[in-house]
Amino acid sequence: MSVIHADKNNFQEIVMNSEKPVLVDFWATWCGPCRMIAPVLEELSEENPDVKIVKVDVDENPELASQFQVMSIPALFVIKNGEVVAQSLGVKPKAQLQALLDKS
C-alpha cells in the first residue's frame, strides 16, 4: 500500500474512521527533514499492509496541525480507533519508526 495524502475534507474518513492503525505524518514541502523521512515512510507502507501511512501538509491544513498541536515537523502520530496511541517528533531511523508501528 502506498502513502495516502489527506486533507481537512477527508481526514475523518481516512484516519479517524479507519479500521487499521494509521501513521500520520505532518509535513511541509519546504521541510528538509520531512523530505528525508519520506522514502522511509514509503518503505514502511509497502512492508506493513496492515497499517495506513497518511501524510498531511501543514501549510495546506493548518486546522489539522492545530488540532494535533503540531509545533514542529515532521510530527508523526499513530492513531488507532480514532485515538492517538503513539507519537514521535523529528527524523528517526526506520527501525524506530517500525517499533512505533509495532506498538499499535
Structure description:
This protein is an alpha/beta fold. It has a single domain (4-99), classed as Glutaredoxin (3-Layer(aba) Sandwich). The protein is 37% helix and 26% strand. It is built from four helices and five strands. The protein has a five-stranded mixed beta sheet with strand order 1-3-2-4-5. Strand 4 (75-80) and strand 5 (83-89) form a beta hairpin. It is globular, with a radius of gyration of 12 Å. It starts with a strand and ends with a helix. The mean pLDDT is 95.
Q: Any idea what the shape is? A: globular
Please report the total strand number as a whole number. 5
CATH topology: Glutaredoxin
Level-2 CATH architecture: 3-Layer(aba) Sandwich
Task: Summarize the main sheet.
Answer: 5 strands, mixed
Radius of gyration: 12 Å
Could you name the ranges where pLDDT drops below 50 across 5 or more consecutive residues?
none
Q: What is the H level of CATH, i.e. the homologous superfamily?
A: Glutaredoxin
Strand order of the largest sheet: 1-3-2-4-5
Oligomer: single chain
Count of DSSP helices? 4
What is the name of the CATH class?
A: Alpha Beta
Helix-strand string:
EHEHEHEEH
Structural class label: alpha/beta
What portion of residues is helical? Answer: 25-40%
- Please give the alpha-carbon distance between the first and last residues: 18 Å
Number of domains: 1
Name the average pLDDT.
95
Could you tell me the strand content as a percent range?
25-35%
